[in-house]
Amino acid sequence: MNLNDTEKAMLAGEMGKARQRAIIQQIQVGDFFDAVDFVPVAQAHIMADTESLGESGVCFLENLANEAEVDNQVCIPTITDPRGADFNTYKQINHDPAYVALEKRADQAFRALGVLMTDTCINYQTVIPPVRGEHLAMGDTGVVIYSNSVFGARTNYEGGPSAVAAALTGRTPRYGFHLDENRHGTRLFQVKEQPKDWSQWGALGGFIGREMGSYYEVPVIEGIDVTPSSDDLKHFGAAMASFGSTALFHMVAITPEAPTVEAVFEGTPPAPHVITAEDVDAFFATYAMDDDALDVVVFAAPQLSLYELERLAKLLKGQTIHSDVALLIATNPENKRAAERMGLDDMITGSGAILMEGVCFYQMHARELGEANDWTRLMTNSAKLVNIISGYGYEPVLSDMERCVQSAIAGRIVR
Amino acid sequence: MRDLIIKGHLGIGPKASGEALVATDNFSARYDLDRIKGIFSRPAHKLFKQGYVGKVLVLNIAKGGVATAWMLHEMASRGMAPAALLLNFANPIIAQGAAFGQVPLIDRFDGDITTMIKTGDQVEVNPATGDVIVTQS
After folding, report:
1. What pLDDT score was predicted for residue A312?
2. Most buried of A300, A367, B53, B85 (most Cβ within 10 A)?
């Protein structure tokens, strides 16, 4: 890779050992992807829940935090993805205190580095929205695909250690979706049935993601004749990224780099893959069960927006969750405070539901939580969550928000 | 028994060797593995219930989320990592995790790597050159 004077100084150790280690790691990744040089980034977003970090990752952060302050401070605005434990509600869900203690250590280490503890995967809705053309180092697949696709910003998937490195160096190797040539469409999908709710947007995104053959495939979607909301596109993109390792989509006449089908492809567009109502139904059927047993209902992945919380609050107001079932909701600290101010929190928790902040269900030791609470059958409106959670020993069921709430109240799956 | 040399793109991490564990499926450490037991735990995965520790894992592409970047390092710290990863196409997360955890990784081979190596083959991996030497079983 070609290095400028600042980068050469970092590599030589003239800007401290932390930045030297960071740029060595970044050069290895840059060489792997044939990056020619680095590109400065405006923000870093770090995924570092303690389930992923483990003891070794927390020790890595603590060692970094113990270095001289002149060497270890992040040099661009740096924020965090959901954490591995909610310090307020962990007892209600029998979360192992050992994990909570590990989370506290990670939290303190990040603060010592100058990281802003936003603990969110919906920073584009609640912290600051990206700008078209802005280069970023975003550390959550849902954040990456939303930033690239809906805003036209430029970021690759930056895993935790990579986002830490970007935060320390202020740059990232210029490859992948930082480059114009990788942002053209490669596949065309034609949607015949308009998605009607968040679970259907997620299912459509998941269906397309499942069709993707590599990180560099860019699906283009035509045939959407409603204007989706931010939450619609959030579920759509998060599911696509989860199923497909996909970082960018274009939605014709909706997202900024796709004014027309022709504009987004280099050369003649390929023949479209038609997605019918039956295709989406079949996707839901993958996550259906023969019986109606139910242990836990989860609204998360991504964290809920204020509008999603409002919808839930209206559905749960005056209701009581069945004593055999738990209902968990994950949002970020900003929306939790807002929900408290606006009275939504009381409407939700008055039903017996648990409103968690700064976490996401699959990022908080879901396997151990399942074992501690005897949770196997899980119902959700998140297509992203059903994709992830079966590997944790759960039997996931995908349905819409209303049926999920009805089921939590009934204590069994309501179809 | 004969040796086969397969050429990939320059990789990441140190030299390694081990017995191959091969499937045409994709790979994500968070979605697919029970990292405590060292087995594939996702029922839909072709390697479900099979142990991967110390194996040269040969799979199609990297899929799923970002957690693998930390998890390779965490698995290696407990001696529970695969010996190496050979994929048709890595994504940034796997590459970043390999760089952070110093887990050997090569991708972009001359052909479909999941058909060029069989489970049980002995495999030597040299990321610095992109070479994979296979002693077929």
Report:
1. 98
2. B85
Edge-to-edge strand ranges of the sheet holding A326-331: A354-357, A326-331, A296-304, A377-380, A395-398
Angle between helices B68-77 and A160-169 (to 10 degrees): 110
ipTM metric:
0.93
**Does A95 lie in the same domain as A59?**
yes
Residue numbers of chain A with a pLDDT score lower than 50: none
The partner residues of A273 in beta bridges, in order of sequence, read A189
- The answer to whether the Cβ–Cβ distance between A391 and B11 falls below 8 Å is no
Residue A57 and residue B96: Cβ atoms within 8 Å?
no
A153 and A9, same structural domain?
yes
Q: Please list, in sequence order, all residues whose beta carbon lies within 8 angstroms of the beta carbon of residue B65, skipping any fewer than 6 positions away.
A: A47, A140, A141, A241, A242, A388, B28, B30, B31, B93
8 A C-beta contact, residue A339 and residue A345 = yes
Find the CB nearest B74 among A32, A53, A245: A53
Please give the average per-residue pLDDT across B89-113, as a whole number. Answer: 95
What integer pLDDT is reported at residue A324 of this predicted model?
98
Give the B-side interface with A, CB within 8 Å.
9-12, 26, 30-34, 41-44, 61-71, 73-74, 77-78, 88-93, 95-97, 99-100, 105
Find, in chain B, the residue whose alpha carbon is nearest to that of A31. Answer: B10
Same domain, yes or no: A99 and A125: yes
The backbone region for B86, taken as left when phi is positive above 0, alpha when psi lies in -120 to 50, beta otherwise, is beta
User: For residue B107, which amino acid is it?
Assistant: D
Q: List chain B residues with CB under 8 Å of A216.
A: 89
Structure tokens at A106: 């990670």
d(CA A40, CA A31): 17
Query: Which residue of A158, A214, A388 is in closest CB contact with B31?
Result: A388
Whether residue A87 is found in the same domain as residue A152: yes
What integer pLDDT is reported at residue B49 of this predicted model?
Answer: 95
Q: What is the CATH number of the domain that holds A65?
A: 3.30.499
Containing structural domain, residue A230: 184-284
